[in-house]
Amino acid sequence: CTKDFLDIQPTSTVTTENFYKTSTDALQATTAAYSQLQQNGMFNYSLWAIGDVMSDNSFLGGGGAADGIEFQQLDNFSIPTTNPLTTNHWQRGYLGIGQANQVLARVPAIEMDAALKNRCLGEAEFLRALYYFYLVRAFGDIPLVLTPAASAAEAASATRTPVAQVYAQIIKDLTDAITKLPASYSGDDIGRATKWAAQGLLAKVYLTQGDMGNAATQARAVIAGSGKSLWPNFASNFQVENENGQESLFEVQFKSGLTSYTTDGPGSCMNEFWGARFFGSPYVVASGGYGFNVPEKDLVSRYAAGDTRRAATLFAPGDAYPDGQIQPATLVGNPNGYSIRKQYVGRTNVNNWDSPLNFPVLRFSEMYLILAEAAPQSADGIEAINKVRRRAFGLPINTPAAAVDLTSVSQTAVIQERRLEFAFEDDRWYDLKRTKTLVSALKAQGKAVQEFNYLLPIPQAEINVNPNLTQNPGY
Amino acid sequence: ARAAVLLPSVHRYAVATVPVSGRVTQPNGEGLPGVTVLVKGTTLGTNTDADGRFTINVPEGGTLVFSNVGYARQEVAITGANPNLSVALKEDAQALNEIVVVGYGTQERQSVTGAVASVSGRAIASQPVADAAQAIQGRAAGVTVVSNSGAPGGAGGTSVSVRGITSAGNNSPLYVVDGFPLPATSDGTEISTISPNDIESIDILKDASATAIYGLRAANGVVIITTKRGKAGVSTVNLDAYAGQQRVWRQIPLLNAEQFATLNNEARVNGGLTPIAKYANPASLGAGTNWLDAIFRPATIQNYNLSATGGSEKARYAVSAGFFQQDGTIINSTFKRFTLRANGDVALSKNFRIGNTLAITHQEDRQLNNQNNEFSGIISLALQAPPTAPVYNADGSFYEFTSADNYGEENPVTGALRPNIHHNRNRVTTTFFAELEPLKGLRFRTNVGADLLFDQNDGFFPSIPGSSKYPVVQSQLNSGSNYNPSYLIENTATYSHLFAEKHNLTVLLGQSAQQFNYSYLGATRIGYSRNDLQVIDQGPINSQINNSGGNGYSTLLSYFGRLNYEFAGKYLFSAIGRFDGSSAFSRENSIGFFPGVSAGWRISEEDFLKDNSSISNLKLRAGYGKVGNPNNAGTFQYLATINSNNFNTNNVPGTSYVFGSGTQNINTGAAPTRLQSTTLKWENNEQLNVGVDLGLFNDRVSASLDLYTRKSPNLIASVPVSTVSGTIENININAASSVNRGLDLAVTTNNFVSSGDGFVWSTTLNFSTYRNRLASLGAGSPYFGQNTRGGGNLVRYAEGVPFGSFYGYVADGIFQTADEVRASATQVTGTNTTNGTAPGDIKFKDLNGDGVINAQDQAYIGNPNPSFTYGLTNTFSFKGFDLNIFIQGSQGNDVYNLNRYYTEGGLYGASNASTLTLERWTGAGTSNFVPRAVAGDPNQNLRISSHYVENGSYLRMKLLTLGYTVPKTLYSKLSAVQRLRVYVTAQNLFTITGYKGFDPELGNQGGSFGVDRGVYPQARVLMAGLNLGF
């Protein structure tokens, strides 16, 4: 009686001991590994601060003072080790890795359909590689953890693994995932990682490492085999009705209407945070817009006349919103009056901070630009960048057009093309980093950037619980 | 009405008896009902009637003993018949109760060997407080009581800590009401549903040798509440009523419109921005809106309590009905409480009796949105809102801030008036007992009880026609209910016997089983097309529908015993042991043993002191015990649970993800987000207490001094784990140990005594001090707590520093010149005056001397633990007048005034600021404290630093009451009325403090200790009341 009275199990939750038994459990465990993509430390909130605000593409507008101070710190390269965005990026990245590790550790023992099991494992490998790819670029040497931690003490004793070793694991995971993942999905599974997503990411990983041969090989494989193609109209990439469309290799899925005032999904907060700050009557975005990611004049000036990407990427003063309101010459915190259009969905969302528009992680056009950068001397490399350029200028993609075609390709040209093509797709900082132009580009903008800013600070919160984690120099 | 009572007893021999009648009075001359009048050495006795009168036959040469709760016992030798004996009992807060409730039984005060403080029901009922716990403040040495919030009805809870905080989590004592241990809460509202008028006494077990009888739950002290019961032969009907007005006693002076616009322009220019067009001509803006005036109001408070007690030896009753109503000092907040109580006792036979307690409470609390939320509460909105905007537009609609204001928060008045939020609570707490006394001194008692707590919370957020901020698509209803029942069954056996006239032995053995259940259900709908039907059913069925629900329970199984031995009334010994088993812990860690031993020596009973004329009482006490606190451990923490929440819940990320085409589907995910903590145990507390009780000059002066050491060897901390683990939630571990050393002193002096209605003056002083130190950190490294608005943590727990110490940068005045900036350590990386450090910015100290201000330059910048706290009560009475002056205070504690993040934030942003910013730095030598105005705060002057640490010492006139008992001659025609007292009371009349915020008295605000997060402030209350006896 005594024992029975005290022997109680939770009635509202399951534990790791009695979970991981069925194919449903395997699917749910795999879903969890995706979950961080749409949340705060990754694409929904942190990555635009790192990828764009911290680059020459944009700055934090906001309301001044301490408004968005964590973005200001990145924008101004005055980054404390406690910065919430970099901290969240690390922590949520590792949370995603942990969730992928759970799949890879537990799912093999589940009795279930072999093909489905294989797919779950491939998805987890892809996701683990994706998270590590972001973390290794942001923080440099990082602990390489491949199994679920048994105890807090075990996790607290992890040491930093050299970058090369982390990349080796990323490549291994992606290579493995390519063999396990299907080429496409249908119905309710659309949005999961495909074989082509893994291969496309692998191309980008090789490119980042400077392994141009392998980068070109992988990019060519995706171009040839994926069946993907460019939208004739660049702007089609950023419309809700075209989600997971013909040009999409992998995108973060967002759905509106379920939550409000959260940066942790499943809605995207970018419509709200990037929207023109408190502009319009009614406001052009649901609860006023915060203007937290404001295009730099320098970026805007780089779009040549006739480049359709400019209008698809941003609202300039005088541009009309769908409801007819005109973008003013200046906005609060935004002296030049530019606002981002790529993630703009307007007032269609009902809940605050809640947009349904997916966010692109890998677009097919990037395969062309990777190929061009990796094989600049080859005919297909030159043709690749020209396809992207022709589309940008509204020309038939496969028809040579002397007005816009390049006859030779330099890395500088490709990087410039990438800047215009992927502006506000959280990618610019990584390009500046890998081309070692971060400091020069941002000094030109008057930013107090320093050499050590090529890496972000290891979060103080993590060093506090694991003294083995040495801080990056300069922080 | 009178009743002579002959308790069952046999006299050994008979003597002649003489009749004695008379009247027992209180210090104010008023008759004192219900006084026990006993012939000393016998069980022959009676009680006084409603007017204090009694009649009894006394053996010639005998002595009558008069005793009553809250009064010093008095003995009167009877030399012959006396028809007019007048006895004036003195109030005695020190040796308050003749009888002290010690858990599963009572003891005479003189036999108590542990540290026990008592507060009389009279002291509780005399204060206009919503929560009875607030009335303990300053009344018991070593017990620190602070309201968490001035929200009406005590809705924010009350922080009660016995002998200092030792734990970073829940430090609340265990509350036991009429034998029922109430479930712990995290918000300090355990006893807020009890009507203060119903309380007979509160006894607070402080040291572990006393609290051990409640074992696992006793580490933070035990507050035992006994409600009023009927007394045989005394029928009383009382009406107690008061009504009054509350006002916030201090407001933070804010800038007017002209001053604000000037500041804002200056900040923007200094920050390299152009001024806002609307503020181009500050002088034209005038005073503008004072948003604090717009949200604060004078508010009423009222309380009515009607009670009846009485009965016979066979059956006794105490019933009462109460109504308490308190409007909030912020518009649109109000609270009502209805209470009913019925306590009964029935003697079914000579040795078998049964009884019950039944308390029913219904509360209606109309709350503000985010009532105690520092970020979006009404007060923080009012502190920030630009005074340049009106409350209402010309057409009467709410003004909404627009881009023209460069400010986007909610109009504070809209924030207060628009939502319709109701928190209703119903609580039934009841116990039934049966007691069998098969032979004299042996009692078996069974006590069963239930505490049923129902909460219904509804918050409707209507749309406002024509508003872009509050459109129909965002109108919303959140509706939720909680049901938290707890059940108890206890069986005890007590044997008490006096052996050989010298050995007094009492043995208690018992068993207890308690179960705590919870369940909740919640729902949300959004997009209400009309605002008048505020129920879930009337909301649209759309994708916004949300619902939640869950349940769980835990159990506690206990066996306990206590032995009290007293030799010759001089040597006292007590031993307690309790086994507690809790379902919250892993099987290996679920059962604990909690012992307590104590001893006492009543030196004044020794021959060499017995006849001493000046020392009337002298007792030494010493005790040691080991007890526990399970409240910070959580339940099932030894298991790694699967997180399958779709969305972020309590700051824990959800695990769902979206797949599919079209509108896509949310897919439930599942993963552990917290590591298991397999070795987790409850917190322990080992306490050594040494005390002395002293009575001088026939107890004209009585004092009690206790010295203690409280060791908490395995405090639980919620510590972050390395997220490299793949989990992100903190885990609870037994991470730290702390030591509190302290002293409690209580002194009562009867400065003037007189019989009848002459001048009487007595003084009671409570004084407490303790030192807290974190002795070691089992977790290995210091850890942080308490997030702040600006990000980062305010509190750091590290070895050798007191619990709750503030940690941040050290502000060292203001940079006066550019040369000074250049000559000092680099504060931030900015390069010019608009994006970097400039004269007028705070100079932060370079503690490690490396020339750069960074995280390594943080230090402990404040200690929220006071040097000492005190309460001083003076009561006077003369000719029917009574005056009670209660002063209470705290000395030497630091407060982190986080409110200044806003009230100085106006220097850097779009929000308003306090008038302190009028003294801002505007050039060399203009200020060495208030920084320059500069938009964007490039120097991060708002970072956590000693700039915001203030001395939180205060002395407060907590209570001032002047009463007058109307002589019966003035209403002699109203024969039914036995007594009538009228009084006026001021609560929080004045406060002497250097603190600059709303109020230095800071409870637990958002889990903080000594941090002013700008929640609902305390009010000053002026009121009048009457006590009417029939």
Blueprint (SSEs and pairs):
The complex is a heterodimer of chains A (475) and B (1030).
Chain A: H1 2-6, H2 23-35, H3 47-53, E1 58-59, H4 69-75, H5 84-106, H6 114-139, H7 152-155, H8 163-180, H9 195-209, H10 212-225, E2 248-252, H11 270-274, E3 294-295, H12 297-302, H13 308-313, E4 314-315, E5 339-340, E6 359-363, H14 364-374, H15 379-392, H16 411-421, H17 428-434, H18 438-443, H19 460-465
Antiparallel strand pairs in A: 1-3, 2-6, 4-5
Helix pairs in contact in A: 2-5, 2-6, 5-6, 6-8, 8-9, 9-10, 9-14, 10-14, 14-15, 14-16
Chain B: E1 3-6, E2 17-25, E3 36-39, E4 44-47, E5 53-59, E6 63-67, E7 74-77, E8 82-88, E9 99-101, E10 106-108, E11 116-120, H1 121-125, E12 143-147, E13 158-162, E14 174-177, E15 180-181, E16 199-205, H2 208-211, E17 222-227, E18 236-248, H3 257-270, H4 291-295, E19 299-311, E20 315-327, E21 334-349, E22 352-367, H5 378-384, H6 412-417, E23 420-439, E24 442-461, E25 476-499, E26 503-526, E27 546-567, E28 571-582, E29 591-602, H7 607-610, E30 615-629, E31 642-643, E32 657-659, E33 665-667, E34 671-672, E35 683-696, E36 701-719, E37 731-752, E38 760-777, E39 783-787, E40 793-797, E41 806-809, E42 811-814, H8 818-823, E43 842-844, E44 858-862, E45 868-878, E46 881-891, E47 894-897, H9 900-903, E48 949-951, E49 954-965, E50 979-987, E51 991-993, E52 1004-1005, E53 1008-1009, E54 1011-1012, E55 1019-1029
Parallel strand pairs in B: 2-8, 14-17, 47-54
Antiparallel strand pairs in B: 1-4, 2-5, 3-4, 3-6, 6-7, 9-10, 11-16, 12-13, 14-15, 16-17, 18-19, 18-55, 19-20, 20-21, 21-22, 22-23, 23-24, 24-25, 25-26, 26-27, 27-28, 28-29, 29-30, 30-35, 31-34, 32-33, 35-36, 36-37, 37-38, 38-45, 39-40, 41-44, 42-43, 45-46, 46-49, 47-48, 49-50, 49-51, 50-55, 52-53
